[in-house]
Amino acid sequence: MQAVFKSFVIAITGQPSGREQACSRKSLSRFLLVLIASVFLAGCASLPNVLDKPKMEFAGVRIDSLDLSKPELTVILRLTNPNSVSLPIKTVELKCDVSGKPFAEGRSLQAIDLPARGNTLIELHLSIYKEGLNQMAKDMLFHPNDPVKYHLVGHATLTQLELRSDFEFIGTTDLPQLLGRKKN
Q1: What is the pTM assigned to this prediction?
Q2: Measured between alpha carbons, how far is 9 from 12 in angstroms, rounded to an integer?
Q3: Which of 24, 136, 137, 139 is the most exposed place for a label (fewest CB within 10 A)?
Q4: Which helix (H) or strand (E) holds 6?
Q5: 55, 57, 53: which is closest to 171 by C-alpha?
Q6: What is the CATH number of domain 52-178?
Q7: Domain range list for the chain
Q8: Are 9 and 24 in contact (CB under 8 A)?
Q9: Distance of CA 57 to the CA centre of its chain
């Protein structure tokens, strides 16, 4: 067995046979250190795969302000945690295009603790680009009953692991519904 070990050490280290006794302990120590480090790093690399990413659903939108100095809207998302442990969400960021043009962007203002196997609603306050507001005003004047296409793209970042969960929603709504008015 010792002869096999010596042959193994010589094969790994490439040491000449005259020095094999002196370096066998040193080589073994190096080999074990590399082996342990490799196992540890492989374990760390797979840690985020233990958790499932939170699921996101679009739950609603409302226009908070059409004030020309600071137009704002709120997008409501439902976050669902499929895991048996709570997930600390550091931030949620979102960009919104309307009718194929950049419309608004924003991020969550505070961290969220998403309960284990539970869900929560999160409101994201978005700043509307002035160009986006101008386009919406034109749409309201010339096409008040036409559906409005929206495209929401964003991500949630977990606090501890820096695990990122991307999401995207594409759909349509109409301006009267968005403004809380009934269609004619």
Answers
A1: 0.62
A2: 5
A3: 137
A4: helix 2-13
A5: 57
A6: 2.60.40.1820
A7: 2-48, 52-178
A8: yes
A9: 14
